[in-house]
Request: fold
Amino acid sequence: MTGDRPSSSDAGSAPSAGAVTYLDHAASTPVRPEALEAMLPWLGVRCGNPSGAHRMAREARTALDDAREVVAEATGVPPGGVVFTSGGTEADNLAVAGAAPPGTIPLCSAVEHHAVLHAVERAGGRSVPVDGAGRLQPSALAGVLEEAAAAGLEVGLVSVMAANNETGVVQPLAALATAIADGAPRALVHTDAVQAANWLDVATVAVAADLVSLSAHKFGGPKGIGALAARDGVAVRSQIVGGGQERNRRSGTQNVAGAVGMAVALRAAIDEREVVTARVRALRDRLAAGLLAAVPGALDTVARGGDPVDRLPNVVHLCLPGVETEALIVLLEQDGVMVSAAASCASGALEASHVLTAMGVPADLAAGSVRLSLGWCSTSSDVDHALAVVPRAVEQLRRVPLRR
Ligand code: PLP
Reply:
């Protein structure tokens, strides 16, 4: 997507040559025009509260339930299993804190988003080391499940993301679910499918999961809405108490407009997936190959071990020796290219990425790493612009001695 800035009006429209190339879709992607259009009435005159008793309230409830059905179908759970939340963070917290049976501990991979990692730590659980590509290997998980059993600890939930937000690496969920079924047969399986949902068929990928987290702003819905989808028979204890909405699993008046926008965006992502994925994968491959060829010493962070790795089609993650990520981001921004260090964090401060650390990426390499992520509306001119600008910026930065 190239334009003055990522706005709803330019989302999906033909790019105009020039100013801004947005390559940070994994952080947040523009709202799809059809999602915005569907939301607008629910932000205006269609203001009924879905918990009310009159016609306008019933209409809001119907809109919410229609949206619930879309999320249910996309995640492969019954509609009653869908709990709307304020986003992926809340869905992850709700899964870990609200679904793991009391008296048990949760486990997760070491490369989870902090929404899972911190929730697992808070619940007294631990993370399991990953391999050099950031994959949780079933044998590593089985080992930790054995250790827990030997220590008399019951593992109540294991959380493994469908795909990583920094590298795009897809986890071997089916094999991990088998390891969990063998080593902790009563444990629930949760997957954070926040990054995967735009690109992969979540119902298939997460078929072995009991709980799935989604966030709308990663697939063209608005920020501030997401869902936790739970399979039949999986109880979710509310972490927010109040009016008992969402079948007592998440109190608070629902974000009807958000849910409507989420559902329309999700439906569009699913309908267009095959075409968009092929297009974006080709763009991503051209971008990655072009940068690796044009920047001396550049390394594909995920492929540096040499193994073929299953990844999302939209992410390029590179280590650029002799460069500081923060300086590169600033320089690229001056040239109109928006990229990311890794996960964006609230403070905007760049800290060492726990994902790269867990993958064993040496600190000096990680300090010069960058994520470029494409989205549903990325174009060939985005790639051209990045290919023209990034090598030049790296060269410029390498002329100045590092401050490390
Ligand atoms: N999980 C993953 C994998 C993410 O990438 C993100 C956001 O970056 C989240 C959870 C949090 O989602 P939200 O921004 O909707 O709270």
